Amino acid sequence: MLKIASIKVEGVTNGCVTDRKPNISFSLESNILGESLKNATITVGNWKIETIDQLNNLYNGEMRPFTEYKVHILAIGTSGEQAEAVTYFTTGRMDTPWRAKWITDGDYDFPKKVSPKPMTFRYRFSIKNQIRRAWINSTALGIYELMLNGEKVGEDYFAPGLTSYYHQIQYQTYPVEKQLQSNNTLIAVVGGGWAAGSFNYKRKNKISADRQALICELHIEYMDGTSETICTDESWQVTEDGNYQMAEWYDGEHYDATVDLNSVIWNQATITVPRKNPKLLAQYGLPVRVKEVMYPLDYNILPSGEIIYDFGQNFAGVIAAKIRGKKGQTILFRHAEVLVDGELFVKSLRTAKASATYVCETGEQSYSPKLTYMGFRYVGVSGIDPDDIELTAYVLHSDFEEIGSFECSNELINQLHSNIRWGGRSNFIDIPTDCPQRDERQGWTGDIAVFASTACYHFDLSRFFDKWLMDMRAEQGQGGGIPMVIPQAGDSWPIMANSCWGDSCILVPWAEYLARGDKQLLIRQYPTIKKFLKAAKWWSSFLSVTPHSRHIWRFPFHFGDWCAPDETVQQWMKKGKWVATAYFANSCNLAAQIAEILNYSDDANYYRDLQESIIKAYRKVFTDGNGTLKKEFQTAYVLPLHFKMVEGKERNKMVENLVRLIREAGNYLTTGFTGTPYLLFALSDNGYVDVAYDLLLQEGCPSWLYEVKAGGTTIWERWDALRPDGTVNISDLSGNKSDDESNGGMVSFNHYANGAVGDWLYKRMVGLEPISGGYKEFKIAPVIGGNITFAKGSIKTPYGLARSEWELKAGVFSINIEVPVSTTCQLILPNGEEYFLASGKYTYSCTVQSEDSEVLQIN
Known about the structure:
The chain is α+β, with helices and mostly antiparallel strands. The protein folds into five domains: about 5-90, Sandwich (Immunoglobulin-like), CATH 2.60.40.10; about 100-285, Galactose-binding domain-like (Jelly Rolls); about 290-400, Jelly Rolls (Sandwich); about 445-715 and about 750-765, Glycosyltransferase, CATH 1.50.10.10; about 770-845, Maltose phosphorylase, domain 3, CATH 2.60.420.10. It contains 15 helices and 44 strands. The longest helix has 23 residues, at about 520-540. The protein is globular, with a radius of gyration of 28 Å.
């Protein structure tokens, strides 16, 4: 039986509100072996198309603002069976002018390096007719919470999200007909957030706005056919004396429940405008939502009286407390990732206070911060007896679907997988951040460049990345450079082309395309890719005098082998030209593939020729021509091996040299952010599966399992963030220890970059790897070793569930796989047998050599 399992409009299953022509995709299910889509008819009103593509169907019919459209799909399989289903999407404002005005408190100001007091806006109004439907369009400079008649409007946190405010701001659409009464009070609390609040490690404020501002329209349609729009204007009231006394990302939040909004002094709102003329667009990213409730494992009371709660997991979110208190009683919540000697260790937070303060009213009450979030495992609570508080916490992250799974016979690796997953969840708070706890939490491009492929296995990030890449395109430098941080949001790094961080403009959309198959993403991103590679080529030829040196990328600077163990920032960056040149070659290769997909054949040929010139330059300048580097370090071998820049005897010599360096390092890795994601691939794909598994299973420092055995529940920024002696590494970038509490070095226990090893777990150990966009074609080729006796993983592709589940028992390898409708799978067994399979469920087995003999590998 053929079934339409899901329909997505702009990547959303339900509730899509859009201002642009939406893309429509759908997946199928069938119990018929080999079933595939023959054709489908998609109908929206008077618009209809015939298609054989389940993923790329761009609606091109009429679009009127504030209108609901029905999407009907009739699908016919190659078996002749049919299926149909419907969904809906709603248009937003589109080009409808805003009748509302931006409002603020024009008399309010605040000093440098601090965040403004939250503004509370109020408007009272009456409804006299029966309502057919009602909705709010709203956004802010800052972050905002809406309350209608004492109830929260919507489920979002930190709306409208962080965007490149000078270019575009998202507005939200909230249905409110069920919340409206005869007499109504609409409250909006607006914190400084990213726009006006203190942000980044230099504590800049007023980055995109001098103060907060709100714009809001309440649209009401009545049963009698009339309508009404209530708009922000001078008639609204504003105060800074509301319940929220302080709110910012790093220091936290102060909420006073004793404040009576009917007793404070209100001023009339002031009209304002944004600094530039940004486009206000219907929300195209994913809102931040509560995704899980966490419960403490236990608590301990310190001699100081502070109660330390352990949630057992490092994560990003906020506490949620049920309190029995007295009026004026003040409760302080402090947050930390680790304990040292039983106390919260907060030096690593640097200037961030990471606290929440709640002033009680009398009786039973609840509190949870709304205008900030923390990265933490431990919470210290003071000002209340443990019998008078029930503490839980909310996990917050962008509202993406979790689509990937993994499990194997080694529990330490399973915990590593969990750490990778939690690292992603913790750092996908509206943008891909570097960390969720200290005075940073910025959109560093290098971190997500290397983690994107792993992340796309775990989560459906189509809308998440679409939003972030829109800001990348808006903020790309005139010379082609990509900001180190996106959105820049006050970041002081100059915009210029550099490797890995800049290559994110290619690596991120390519990972997303392979996972989701959306060609529109590549079309939107392609001009940015071309402009960046042009800049990389220019910098490579800068001050070059020989033909080969013109393709060695030295200038203007590179982060190099960032965070390689036991080295300083100067040592990392000195390796920049090796790293940059290899990344340049790889990006040209990916650009050629993208150009082919988009039918730009001349561009594809150009980038292939450029790639070949870069490869020749790397081999000529950096090696002896036979596979040995003139200056050796692990990453310098890893990158050309994984990026397929060498072959034959030269490749064999390179991997031998890499293995030698690993053995000389005591069987440890010495790679940084740029090499670590590809280290195990470079080994296993070139004849050294055993060495790859040895590194994966290493339990000393530096290694992934060292972090696991040390109690880590997320991925660390530095391999020795917690040293074997139990001390925290708060060394600064120069390797100097910092004893100044306000300068806690560079250490984060929730930094996902080195979690990119997950890509190897899923593509090699489990064996699931996309060959074409959206897993239309994919491979299952498990690489066995490391005494792993079973492994299984699955990913919910745009076509349906792809699954690999294998077991090794008594020398017999058996595997169960699942291939979605309309896809094909290349299955390669450990003995080399190969099968090409259409959709369905299959079981295969073969005899393999024992663990005591040489381990077989798949090339």
